[in-house]
Amino acid sequence: MNRCIACYRCVRYYKDYADGTDLGVYGAHDNVYFGRPEDGTLESEFSGNLVEICPTGVFTDKTHSERYNRKWDMQFAPSICQQCSIGCNISPGERYGELRRIENRYNGTVNHYFLCDRGRFGYGYVNLKDRPRQPVQRRGDDFITLNAEQAMQGAADILRQSKKVIGIGSPRASVESNFALRELVGEENFYTGIAHGEQERLQLALKVLREGGIYTPALREIESYDAVLVLGEDVTQTGARVALAVRQAVKGKAREMAAAQKVADWQIAAILNIGQRAKHPLFVTNVDDTRLDDIAAWTYRAPVEDQARLGFAIAHALDNSAPAVDGIEPELQSKIDVIVQALAGAKKPLIISGTNAGSLEVIQAAANVAKALKGRGADVGITMVARSVNSMGLALWAVDRLKKR
């Protein structure tokens, strides 16, 4: 049964908003078809939103269809996505003790109406049959199942009899869980579960955000910036919802041109016609191709060290008091000049970096660029992307004291 009413909401979202290329509308005589030109999976990282955008249910959630039940038979609760560090608002739905689906939960300053596919479909591990669901104690070669009371009493006995106890936290656990573990074992015996190098990068990122005096925009605000430099992060993979916001920021140039002609923001066809592919500048550095390369004004693929050098060189070009970089090739210097001109000429430039490049220098370079732009009077913003859902929350208060032992 085809329930499509030809409302065009799917292609307007997929092509005009998410910049997808493999879904369109095709017609022959009095027949209209919405879909891919050939069989296959939709390629956009945000295709799952079609499930909620379609008003008649033509697009379905396949992960939910495997264990389908009506919406009124499920129990939903407000929650936060745990698949990355962005913090999108979600509504997970449960039935008979199983997580059946994830739906978007509107938040005007964060994810708005949309999720990434990782957040929407990446919950399958919760329902794994071999996932431990009851306390188990090893006795010799056997594993004995315990009830809650036995498990708590047994754990208490072991802790009382032990001379040295450590607690291993996790950046995927809540602040409350990590804090309770630290209180149980003591601050000196608490390990964050984060590698020492990543701890250092998180602390530097926090220092930049706390003491740098640079504004950190909410996810929704990213769409309002008119020049973006992504330094060392493949944000589509590490914080996909940020990438979708960056796509809207780049398209802001065409919207500004259309607004000057008094064209309403929802008239996308007219906006595209007026804009004629005009874009706000986006510059991306990474060790390999990224999914934002298709809208970038320039991409720089190089080792992490060279990306940091590029960032420091941009900062010095913006502010002579910033550390200088020697040995920049003339061809690269010409690109630096283009980036500097674009960032300096923007009203609201945005710098995006994070810990996923594995480099303190990249983070510091991003901070230097933001500081240099602020010194020039720009309304600059900076965004740092971490590795796990609660990396920043854990780094805010937990110090790894076991690394010295």
From TrEMBL:
Known EC number: 1.6.5.11
GO molecular function: 2 iron, 2 sulfur cluster binding; 4 iron, 4 sulfur cluster binding; metal ion binding; NADH dehydrogenase (ubiquinone) activity; NADH dehydrogenase activity
Pfam families: Fer4_Nqo3, Molybdop_Fe4S4
Keyword tags: 2Fe-2S, 4Fe-4S, Iron, Iron-sulfur, Metal-binding, Oxidoreductase
GO biological process: ATP synthesis coupled electron transport
Gene3D superfamilies according to UniProt: 3.30.200.210
Keyword Oxidoreductase assigned: yes
GO cellular component annotations of the record: membrane
Domain 4Fe-4S Mo/W bis-MGD-type: 74-130
Protein name per UniProt: NADH-quinone oxidoreductase subunit G
Organism, as annotated: Escherichia coli
Gene symbol of the encoding locus: nuoG_2
